[in-house]
Amino acid sequence: MTRPAALLMTCAVLCAALAMGLRQSFGLFLAPMTAAHAWSASGFAFAIALQVLLNGVSQPICGQIADRIGGRRVIMGGASLYALGILGMALSEGLGLFTFFAGLVMGVAVSAAGMPVIIASLTRLLPEEQRGRAVGLGTAGSSFGQFLVVPLAQLGILQWGWQGALMLMAGAALLMIPLALPLADAPAPPKPGVVEESAGAALKRALGTPTFWYLFFGFFVCGVHVSFLSVHLPGFVASCHLPAAVGAGAIALIGLFNVVGSLGAGELSSRWKRRELLVLIYASRGVLMAGFMLVEKTALTVLGFSAIMGLLWLSTVPPTVALVARNFGTRWLATIFGLVFLGHQVGGFTGAFLGGLIFDRTGSYDLMWSVSIAAAAFAALVHLPVRDGMTPAPAPATKAA
């Protein structure tokens, strides 16, 4: 019996909300943890950047496992690793041990219980006409988690210290286990008389297609922007001599407004050319960041920037997933989108680590803002030649003898 679509979407949205909200809170711990342990900003940023990079490297592997056995068990395992990784971060006394838990353990956890596996599972369980809306809802759920969890994490730091807040977050990660129960999307057996395309053949077909690489490098830029802002925006706010609450509010506001942006992008992905939508999103990011650099940094301008950036934050996900499904089919969607997502996370590593390195070397984030603006222009241009047909590309299959 088919599970009700409402139940599937609700559980997926809540699971994605927890996963994204927890990981987007880590930037709040940079200042208190580096002060408590006398670590450098670049040392802390490297651990988070390593998490982002390993997330990208392990994402296709987790996607491949989810494509073979279904997303439910993969997400549950990832939730357990989430709790272990955050608890290890709380108890780490040295930067090396912190890097192990925050970088290595959390990198795999975020892949297994992250948005790509959740969305791929949801996409397979729903009819095509509901997929764009479902991906938009899943992405919006992630952003709502960011809006809800980040202020709670900041409150936890104020009430119980950074260590107590991390321990509470580790317990919250375990809530993803029951939420994953309905997401049992084990692939259906192939139709009689048809030899199903193997994972290797699907990957070879994707890697040999220019559209795959356009999406890969465009998502790289998205990762640069997301990680730079999520890790360093609170620090940038502090460098402007504004209260810490403004930094936490900025991250939360990005999450809140991305609920609207993601839902809108999900609807537009079903009604409009996804290629043009991505070009518009990336170009708008560049214009917004350039304008932000020209105005005085006050609480009002920071929060206004965050609200508009929220509309553009993860709104890249629904059109990107739709283009992957259109061009390469849904049988190996978690695997192929996982590879595209690798580009996002390599960009995320770059944004998180480069931001910390530039700040340590120059005492300012100005150069990193310039890099981010140039990257936005590149991403807008690289999506122009993306193939965006109105029907899915058929997966090769041969009749059995």
Description:
The chain has 401 residues and is mainly alpha-helical. The protein has one domain (5-183, 200-394): MFS general substrate transporter like domains (Growth Hormone, Chain: A), CATH 1.20.1250. The chain is built from 16 helices and 2 strands. It has a two-stranded antiparallel sheet with strand order 1-2. It is globular, with a radius of gyration of 20 Å. Mean pLDDT is 84; it is low at 390-401.
Can you describe this structure in just a few lines?
The protein has 401 residues and is mainly α.
What are the defining features of this structure?
Growth Hormone, Chain: A, 79% helix, 401 residues, two-stranded antiparallel ribbon, globular, 2 strands, mainly alpha
